[in-house]
Protein backbone atom coordinates (compact mmCIF):
# COMPACT_ATOMS: atom_id res chain seq x y z
CA UNK A 1 0.00 0.00 0.00
CA UNK A 2 1.41 3.38 -0.97
CA UNK A 3 1.92 5.65 1.99
CA UNK A 4 0.51 9.13 1.48
CA UNK A 5 2.90 11.85 2.50
CA UNK A 6 3.15 15.61 2.48
CA UNK A 7 6.78 16.71 1.96
CA UNK A 8 6.77 18.84 5.14
CA UNK A 9 7.07 17.55 8.68
CA UNK A 10 5.15 18.80 11.68
CA UNK A 11 7.72 21.42 12.69
CA UNK A 12 7.87 22.79 9.16
CA UNK A 13 4.09 22.93 8.88
CA UNK A 14 3.76 24.58 12.29
CA UNK A 15 6.34 27.17 11.27
CA UNK A 16 4.42 27.76 8.06
CA UNK A 17 1.17 28.40 9.90
CA UNK A 18 2.82 31.34 11.64
CA UNK A 19 3.15 33.00 8.23
CA UNK A 20 -0.01 31.60 6.67
CA UNK A 21 -2.86 30.70 8.99
CA UNK A 22 -4.77 27.48 8.32
CA UNK A 23 -6.57 26.37 6.31
CA UNK A 24 -4.47 26.54 3.15
CA UNK A 25 -3.69 24.51 0.07
CA UNK A 26 -0.05 23.78 -0.63
CA UNK A 27 1.44 22.36 -3.86
CA UNK A 28 4.78 20.65 -4.47
CA UNK A 29 6.57 22.12 -7.51
CA UNK A 30 9.22 19.42 -7.79
CA UNK A 31 6.67 16.61 -7.80
CA UNK A 32 4.48 18.44 -10.34
CA UNK A 33 7.46 18.90 -12.68
CA UNK A 34 8.61 15.28 -12.38
CA UNK A 35 5.09 14.07 -13.05
CA UNK A 36 4.80 16.33 -16.13
CA UNK A 37 8.06 14.89 -17.41
CA UNK A 38 6.81 11.31 -16.90
CA UNK A 39 3.72 12.08 -18.96
CA UNK A 40 5.76 13.60 -21.79
CA UNK A 41 8.19 10.67 -21.77
CA UNK A 42 5.33 8.18 -22.17
CA UNK A 43 4.26 9.88 -25.41
CA UNK A 44 7.65 11.03 -26.69
CA UNK A 45 7.22 8.69 -29.68
CA UNK A 46 4.61 11.11 -31.06
CA UNK A 47 6.44 14.26 -32.18
CA UNK A 48 3.26 16.34 -32.04
CA UNK A 49 2.26 15.18 -28.56
CA UNK A 50 0.91 17.96 -26.42
CA UNK A 51 -0.79 18.04 -23.05
CA UNK A 52 -3.15 20.97 -22.53
CA UNK A 53 -3.48 21.31 -18.77
CA UNK A 54 -7.17 21.47 -17.85
CA UNK A 55 -7.07 24.82 -16.11
CA UNK A 56 -10.27 24.20 -14.19
CA UNK A 57 -8.44 21.64 -12.03
CA UNK A 58 -6.16 24.28 -10.49
CA UNK A 59 -6.65 27.70 -12.07
CA UNK A 60 -3.57 29.35 -10.64
CA UNK A 61 -1.20 31.18 -13.01
CA UNK A 62 1.87 30.17 -10.99
CA UNK A 63 1.07 26.49 -11.44
CA UNK A 64 0.21 27.13 -15.08
CA UNK A 65 3.53 28.85 -15.60
CA UNK A 66 5.41 25.86 -14.19
CA UNK A 67 3.47 23.61 -16.55
CA UNK A 68 4.11 25.92 -19.50
CA UNK A 69 7.83 25.62 -18.77
CA UNK A 70 7.35 21.85 -19.03
CA UNK A 71 5.83 22.32 -22.48
CA UNK A 72 2.15 22.13 -21.60
CA UNK A 73 -0.57 24.26 -23.10
CA UNK A 74 -3.88 25.15 -21.48
CA UNK A 75 -7.33 23.64 -21.86
CA UNK A 76 -9.81 26.36 -20.97
CA UNK A 77 -13.51 26.27 -20.33
CA UNK A 78 -14.41 29.90 -19.68
CA UNK A 79 -13.42 33.47 -20.49
CA UNK A 80 -11.39 34.00 -17.28
CA UNK A 81 -9.55 30.73 -17.91
CA UNK A 82 -8.66 31.93 -21.40
CA UNK A 83 -7.40 35.15 -19.81
CA UNK A 84 -5.32 33.18 -17.30
CA UNK A 85 -3.71 31.30 -20.18
CA UNK A 86 -3.01 34.59 -21.91
CA UNK A 87 -1.57 36.07 -18.69
CA UNK A 88 1.21 33.49 -18.55
CA UNK A 89 2.15 34.03 -22.18
CA UNK A 90 0.37 31.14 -23.84
CA UNK A 91 -0.97 31.95 -27.27
CA UNK A 92 -2.40 30.50 -30.45
CA UNK A 93 -2.64 26.75 -30.60
CA UNK A 94 -1.07 26.33 -27.17
CA UNK A 95 -4.60 27.04 -25.94
CA UNK A 96 -7.73 25.01 -26.51
CA UNK A 97 -11.24 26.11 -25.62
CA UNK A 98 -12.95 22.87 -24.81
CA UNK A 99 -16.21 23.60 -23.08
CA UNK A 100 -19.91 23.13 -23.71
CA UNK A 101 -22.86 25.49 -23.98
CA UNK A 102 -20.30 28.21 -24.75
CA UNK A 103 -21.34 31.87 -24.82
CA UNK A 104 -20.26 34.17 -27.63
CA UNK A 105 -17.69 36.10 -25.57
CA UNK A 106 -15.65 32.94 -24.98
CA UNK A 107 -15.67 32.07 -28.66
CA UNK A 108 -14.70 35.63 -29.57
CA UNK A 109 -11.81 35.64 -27.08
CA UNK A 110 -10.59 32.21 -28.21
CA UNK A 111 -10.68 33.40 -31.81
CA UNK A 112 -8.71 36.55 -30.92
CA UNK A 113 -6.10 34.40 -29.19
CA UNK A 114 -5.92 32.04 -32.16
CA UNK A 115 -6.81 29.19 -29.80
CA UNK A 116 -8.18 25.88 -30.98
CA UNK A 117 -11.94 25.76 -30.48
CA UNK A 118 -13.37 22.35 -29.70
CA UNK A 119 -17.00 22.43 -30.82
CA UNK A 120 -19.43 20.65 -28.55
CA UNK A 121 -22.52 20.66 -30.76
CA UNK A 122 -23.37 20.78 -34.45
CA UNK A 123 -25.50 23.89 -33.96
CA UNK A 124 -22.43 25.71 -32.69
CA UNK A 125 -20.90 25.77 -36.16
CA UNK A 126 -23.41 28.41 -37.20
CA UNK A 127 -23.24 30.12 -33.80
CA UNK A 128 -19.46 30.41 -34.02
CA UNK A 129 -19.61 31.58 -37.63
CA UNK A 130 -21.98 34.36 -36.63
CA UNK A 131 -20.23 35.56 -33.50
CA UNK A 132 -16.57 35.20 -34.41
CA UNK A 133 -16.25 33.66 -37.87
CA UNK A 134 -14.87 30.21 -38.60
CA UNK A 135 -11.16 29.77 -37.98
CA UNK A 136 -8.72 27.94 -40.22
CA UNK A 137 -8.36 25.07 -37.73
CA UNK A 138 -11.10 23.56 -35.62
CA UNK A 139 -11.80 20.53 -33.47
CA UNK A 140 -15.00 18.58 -32.85
CA UNK A 141 -15.94 16.73 -29.68
CA UNK A 142 -17.34 13.28 -30.34
CA UNK A 143 -19.73 11.47 -28.01
CA UNK A 144 -19.63 7.76 -28.81
CA UNK A 145 -22.94 7.17 -27.04
CA UNK A 146 -23.71 3.49 -26.46
CA UNK A 147 -20.47 2.49 -28.22
CA UNK A 148 -18.57 3.16 -25.04
CA UNK A 149 -19.36 2.86 -21.36
CA UNK A 150 -18.67 5.90 -19.22
CA UNK A 151 -18.00 6.05 -15.52
CA UNK A 152 -19.55 7.53 -12.41
CA UNK A 153 -18.52 11.15 -12.83
CA UNK A 154 -19.41 11.50 -16.52
CA UNK A 155 -22.12 8.83 -16.55
CA UNK A 156 -23.16 6.84 -19.63
CA UNK A 157 -22.01 8.74 -22.72
CA UNK A 158 -25.53 8.68 -24.22
CA UNK A 159 -26.84 10.44 -21.10
CA UNK A 160 -23.96 12.92 -21.05
CA UNK A 161 -24.52 16.43 -22.37
CA UNK A 162 -21.24 16.52 -24.26
CA UNK A 163 -20.32 16.18 -27.88
CA UNK A 164 -21.67 15.27 -31.32
CA UNK A 165 -23.33 11.95 -32.19
CA UNK A 166 -21.62 9.87 -34.83
CA UNK A 167 -23.90 11.10 -37.64
CA UNK A 168 -23.53 14.70 -36.53
CA UNK A 169 -19.78 14.28 -36.49
CA UNK A 170 -19.61 13.33 -40.18
CA UNK A 171 -22.14 16.02 -41.04
CA UNK A 172 -20.19 18.58 -38.99
CA UNK A 173 -16.88 17.92 -40.73
CA UNK A 174 -18.63 18.00 -44.11
CA UNK A 175 -20.14 21.42 -43.35
CA UNK A 176 -16.85 22.78 -42.00
CA UNK A 177 -14.94 21.44 -45.01
CA UNK A 178 -17.44 23.02 -47.40
CA UNK A 179 -17.18 26.31 -45.54
CA UNK A 180 -13.45 26.36 -46.11
CA UNK A 181 -12.02 25.21 -42.79
CA UNK A 182 -8.60 23.79 -43.61
CA UNK A 183 -7.34 21.91 -40.57
CA UNK A 184 -9.20 19.53 -38.32
CA UNK A 185 -8.99 18.00 -34.89
CA UNK A 186 -11.07 15.25 -33.31
CA UNK A 187 -11.74 15.07 -29.59
CA UNK A 188 -13.52 12.87 -27.14
CA UNK A 189 -13.67 12.55 -23.38
CA UNK A 190 -15.90 9.96 -21.84
CA UNK A 191 -14.33 9.20 -18.50
CA UNK A 192 -13.30 11.06 -15.42
CA UNK A 193 -11.00 9.83 -12.68
CA UNK A 194 -10.48 6.55 -14.52
CA UNK A 195 -7.72 4.33 -13.14
CA UNK A 196 -7.84 1.66 -15.83
CA UNK A 197 -5.18 2.64 -18.37
CA UNK A 198 -6.64 0.42 -21.09
CA UNK A 199 -9.61 2.80 -21.18
CA UNK A 200 -7.44 5.50 -22.75
CA UNK A 201 -5.92 3.09 -25.25
CA UNK A 202 -9.45 2.12 -26.25
CA UNK A 203 -10.41 5.79 -26.62
CA UNK A 204 -7.49 6.38 -28.96
CA UNK A 205 -8.55 3.28 -30.90
CA UNK A 206 -12.04 4.70 -31.48
CA UNK A 207 -10.57 7.99 -32.63
CA UNK A 208 -7.98 6.36 -34.93
CA UNK A 209 -10.77 4.42 -36.65
CA UNK A 210 -12.77 7.61 -37.09
CA UNK A 211 -9.76 9.43 -38.51
CA UNK A 212 -9.54 6.72 -41.19
CA UNK A 213 -13.27 6.87 -41.93
CA UNK A 214 -13.27 10.65 -42.16
CA UNK A 215 -10.41 10.46 -44.61
CA UNK A 216 -12.11 7.94 -46.90
CA UNK A 217 -15.66 9.23 -46.66
CA UNK A 218 -15.10 12.98 -46.67
CA UNK A 219 -11.51 13.49 -47.68
CA UNK A 220 -11.07 15.26 -44.36
CA UNK A 221 -7.56 14.85 -43.05
CA UNK A 222 -7.57 15.02 -39.27
CA UNK A 223 -4.36 16.63 -38.04
CA UNK A 224 -4.71 16.01 -34.31
CA UNK A 225 -6.73 13.86 -31.98
CA UNK A 226 -7.38 14.76 -28.38
CA UNK A 227 -8.23 11.91 -26.04
CA UNK A 228 -9.40 14.31 -23.35
CA UNK A 229 -8.51 14.25 -19.71
CA UNK A 230 -9.91 11.88 -17.16
CA UNK A 231 -6.82 9.97 -16.11
CA UNK A 232 -7.56 9.08 -12.50
CA UNK A 233 -5.41 9.30 -9.42
CA UNK A 234 -5.20 6.84 -6.55
CA UNK A 235 -7.17 8.70 -3.87
CA UNK A 236 -7.17 5.57 -1.73
CA UNK A 237 -3.83 4.25 -0.48
CA UNK A 238 -4.62 0.79 -1.88
CA UNK A 239 -5.27 2.11 -5.40
CA UNK A 240 -2.67 2.13 -8.16
CA UNK A 241 -1.79 5.09 -10.34
CA UNK A 242 -2.34 4.65 -14.09
CA UNK A 243 0.78 3.25 -15.74
CA UNK A 244 1.51 6.00 -18.26
CA UNK A 245 4.09 3.93 -20.12
CA UNK A 246 1.47 1.21 -20.63
CA UNK A 247 -0.97 3.79 -22.04
CA UNK A 248 1.70 5.42 -24.21
CA UNK A 249 2.93 2.12 -25.62
CA UNK A 250 -0.59 0.81 -26.14
CA UNK A 251 -1.51 3.87 -28.16
CA UNK A 252 1.79 3.74 -30.08
CA UNK A 253 1.10 0.18 -31.26
CA UNK A 254 -2.34 1.19 -32.50
CA UNK A 255 -0.88 4.28 -34.13
CA UNK A 256 1.57 2.22 -36.13
CA UNK A 257 -1.14 -0.17 -37.25
CA UNK A 258 -4.06 2.20 -37.84
CA UNK A 259 -2.41 5.46 -38.76
CA UNK A 260 1.09 4.91 -40.13
CA UNK A 261 0.23 1.84 -42.22
CA UNK A 262 -2.83 3.60 -43.62
CA UNK A 263 -0.76 6.59 -44.71
CA UNK A 264 -2.57 8.89 -42.27
CA UNK A 265 0.56 9.99 -40.38
CA UNK A 266 1.57 12.39 -39.02
CA UNK A 267 -1.27 12.68 -36.54
CA UNK A 268 -0.64 14.66 -33.38
CA UNK A 269 -1.80 13.17 -30.12
CA UNK A 270 -3.18 15.63 -27.61
CA UNK A 271 -4.50 15.30 -24.09
CA UNK A 272 -6.15 17.64 -21.65
CA UNK A 273 -5.61 16.11 -18.25
CA UNK A 274 -6.09 18.17 -15.13
CA UNK A 275 -6.54 15.90 -12.14
CA UNK A 276 -3.50 13.68 -12.71
CA UNK A 277 -1.23 16.67 -13.32
CA UNK A 278 -1.60 18.45 -9.98
CA UNK A 279 -4.04 16.35 -7.91
CA UNK A 280 -1.62 14.17 -5.92
CA UNK A 281 0.80 17.06 -5.39
CA UNK A 282 -1.51 19.37 -3.49
CA UNK A 283 -2.75 19.13 0.11
CA UNK A 284 -5.32 20.93 2.21
CA UNK A 285 -3.83 21.67 5.62
CA UNK A 286 -6.23 22.42 8.44
CA UNK A 287 -6.24 22.54 12.21
CA UNK A 288 -8.47 20.64 14.63
CA UNK A 289 -10.73 23.17 16.33
CA UNK A 290 -13.07 20.95 18.30
CA UNK A 291 -13.86 17.42 19.25
CA UNK A 292 -17.47 16.55 19.77
CA UNK A 293 -18.98 13.40 21.17
CA UNK A 294 -22.74 12.89 20.77
CA UNK A 295 -24.28 9.86 19.09
CA UNK A 296 -21.08 9.83 17.09
CA UNK A 297 -17.53 11.02 17.45
CA UNK A 298 -16.80 14.19 15.47
CA UNK A 299 -13.59 16.07 14.80
CA UNK A 300 -14.20 19.64 13.64
CA UNK A 301 -11.60 21.36 11.45
CA UNK A 302 -11.05 24.98 10.54
CA UNK A 303 -11.53 23.97 6.88
CA UNK A 304 -14.90 23.00 5.45
CA UNK A 305 -16.41 21.87 2.17
CA UNK A 306 -15.95 25.35 0.71
CA UNK A 307 -12.21 24.51 0.67
CA UNK A 308 -12.67 21.03 -0.80
CA UNK A 309 -16.12 19.96 -1.83
CA UNK A 310 -15.42 16.61 -3.50
CA UNK A 311 -16.31 14.48 -0.47
CA UNK A 312 -19.62 16.29 -0.02
CA UNK A 313 -20.34 16.52 -3.75
CA UNK A 314 -19.57 12.98 -4.88
CA UNK A 315 -18.89 11.13 -1.64
CA UNK A 316 -15.29 11.12 -2.84
CA UNK A 317 -12.58 9.60 -0.68
CA UNK A 318 -9.70 11.84 0.39
CA UNK A 319 -7.04 10.32 2.57
CA UNK A 320 -6.45 12.09 5.88
CA UNK A 321 -3.31 12.04 8.01
CA UNK A 322 -2.43 13.86 11.18
CA UNK A 323 0.88 15.70 11.02
CA UNK A 324 3.42 14.22 13.42
CA UNK A 325 1.22 11.16 14.02
CA UNK A 326 2.05 9.34 10.79
CA UNK A 327 3.22 6.28 12.68
CA UNK A 328 0.45 6.22 15.29
CA UNK A 329 -2.16 3.51 14.92
CA UNK A 330 -5.42 4.48 13.28
CA UNK A 331 -7.80 3.38 15.99
CA UNK A 332 -9.90 6.49 16.44
CA UNK A 333 -13.07 6.29 14.36
CA UNK A 334 -14.73 9.61 13.69
CA UNK A 335 -16.43 11.90 11.21
CA UNK A 336 -14.08 14.68 10.15
CA UNK A 337 -16.22 17.76 9.59
CA UNK A 338 -16.15 21.40 8.67
CA UNK A 339 -18.33 24.16 10.09
CA UNK A 340 -20.82 24.65 7.28
CA UNK A 341 -24.53 24.48 8.07
CA UNK A 342 -24.88 21.45 5.80
CA UNK A 343 -24.72 18.01 7.29
CA UNK A 344 -22.83 16.69 4.29
CA UNK A 345 -19.94 19.02 5.16
CA UNK A 346 -17.77 16.06 6.12
CA UNK A 347 -14.33 15.27 4.79
CA UNK A 348 -14.70 11.71 6.01
CA UNK A 349 -17.35 9.57 7.65
CA UNK A 350 -16.51 6.77 10.10
CA UNK A 351 -12.84 7.14 9.25
CA UNK A 352 -10.16 5.49 11.39
CA UNK A 353 -7.38 7.98 12.04
CA UNK A 354 -4.87 8.39 14.87
CA UNK A 355 -6.33 9.84 18.05
CA UNK A 356 -6.28 13.57 17.47
CA UNK A 357 -5.88 16.39 19.92
CA UNK A 358 -7.30 19.86 19.60
CA UNK A 359 -4.77 21.97 17.74
CA UNK A 360 -3.37 19.09 15.67
CA UNK A 361 -2.65 19.78 12.02
CA UNK A 362 -4.66 17.55 9.74
CA UNK A 363 -3.56 16.95 6.15
CA UNK A 364 -6.14 16.12 3.50
CA UNK A 365 -4.40 14.47 0.57
CA UNK A 366 -4.85 14.66 -3.20
CA UNK A 367 -6.39 18.11 -2.98
CA UNK A 368 -4.23 19.57 -5.78
CA UNK A 369 -6.95 19.36 -8.42
CA UNK A 370 -10.64 20.24 -8.17
CA UNK A 371 -9.82 21.32 -4.61
CA UNK A 372 -9.33 25.06 -4.13
CA UNK A 373 -10.73 25.39 -7.65
CA UNK A 374 -14.18 24.21 -6.58
CA UNK A 375 -14.19 26.62 -3.65
CA UNK A 376 -17.25 28.69 -2.99
CA UNK A 377 -18.57 31.24 -0.54
CA UNK A 378 -21.68 29.64 0.91
CA UNK A 379 -22.20 30.53 4.60
CA UNK A 380 -20.03 33.55 3.79
CA UNK A 381 -16.94 31.38 4.08
CA UNK A 382 -13.82 33.00 2.74
CA UNK A 383 -11.63 31.12 0.31
CA UNK A 384 -8.26 30.01 1.62
CA UNK A 385 -4.74 30.76 0.45
CA UNK A 386 -2.68 28.69 -1.99
CA UNK A 387 1.00 28.10 -1.26
CA UNK A 388 3.76 26.59 -3.35
CA UNK A 389 6.70 24.58 -2.07
CA UNK A 390 9.46 25.52 -4.49
CA UNK A 391 12.18 23.12 -5.55
CA UNK A 392 14.67 24.81 -3.22
CA UNK A 393 12.40 24.26 -0.20
CA UNK A 394 11.15 27.84 0.01
CA UNK A 395 7.40 28.29 0.41
CA UNK A 396 5.72 31.13 -1.46
CA UNK A 397 2.14 32.29 -1.44
CA UNK A 398 0.59 31.99 -4.90
CA UNK A 399 -2.86 33.21 -3.93
CA UNK A 400 -3.72 35.02 -0.72
CA UNK A 401 -6.71 34.09 1.38
CA UNK A 402 -9.86 36.10 0.79
CA UNK A 403 -10.67 38.81 3.26
CA UNK A 404 -13.98 40.13 4.50
CA UNK A 405 -13.38 43.12 2.19
CA UNK A 406 -13.25 40.76 -0.78
CA UNK A 407 -16.55 39.26 0.31
CA UNK A 408 -18.15 42.70 0.49
CA UNK A 409 -16.55 43.97 -2.72
CA UNK A 410 -19.53 43.10 -4.91
CA UNK A 411 -21.99 44.91 -2.65
CA UNK A 412 -22.78 48.60 -3.00
CA UNK A 413 -23.10 49.98 0.54
CA UNK A 414 -23.42 53.57 -0.67
CA UNK A 415 -26.49 52.56 -2.63
CA UNK A 416 -27.77 50.78 0.44
CA UNK A 417 -27.73 54.00 2.49
CA UNK A 418 -30.18 55.67 0.16
CA UNK A 419 -32.18 52.50 -0.42
CA UNK A 420 -35.67 52.90 1.03
CA UNK A 421 -36.85 49.74 2.69
C1 LIG B 1 -12.72 18.40 -16.82
C2 LIG B 1 -12.22 18.28 -18.20
C3 LIG B 1 -10.91 17.89 -18.44
C4 LIG B 1 -9.96 17.49 -17.34
O1 LIG B 1 -10.40 16.37 -16.65
P1 LIG B 1 -9.48 15.70 -15.54
O2 LIG B 1 -10.37 14.65 -14.96
O3 LIG B 1 -9.14 16.78 -14.57
O4 LIG B 1 -8.29 15.15 -16.22
C5 LIG B 1 -10.47 17.85 -19.74
N1 LIG B 1 -11.28 18.19 -20.76
C6 LIG B 1 -12.55 18.58 -20.58
C7 LIG B 1 -13.38 18.93 -21.76
C8 LIG B 1 -13.07 18.63 -19.30
O5 LIG B 1 -14.33 19.00 -19.12
Entry keywords:
single chain; alpha/beta; Lyase, Ornithine Decarboxylase, Chain A, domain 1; nine-stranded mixed β-sheet; eight-stranded parallel β-barrel; 13 helices; binds pyridoxal-5'-phosphate
CATH superfamily of the largest domain: Alanine racemase
> Structural class given helices, strands, pairing?
alpha/beta
Number of separate structural domains? 2
Within the CATH hierarchy, at the fold level, what is the topology of the largest domain? TIM Barrel
Classified by CATH, the class of the largest domain is Alpha Beta
CATH architecture of the largest domain: Alpha-Beta Barrel
Query: Which of globular, elongated, flat, extended, rod-shaped describes the shape?
Result: globular
Beta content: 15-25%
Please describe what this structure looks like.
This protein has two domains: 29-278, TIM Barrel (Alpha-Beta Barrel); 280-408, Lyase, Ornithine Decarboxylase, Chain A, domain 1. The chain is an alpha/beta fold. The strands form two sheets. Strands 1, 10, 11, 12, 13, 14, 15, 16 and 17 form a nine-stranded mixed sheet that branches. Helix 2 runs parallel beside helix 9 (244-260) and helix 8 (198-218) packs parallel to helix 9 (244-260). The model has no long low-confidence stretch (mean pLDDT 96). The chain is built from 13 helices and 17 strands. Pyridoxal-5'-phosphate (PLP) binds next to loops.
Describe the structure concisely for a colleague:
This protein is of the alpha/beta class and 421 residues long.
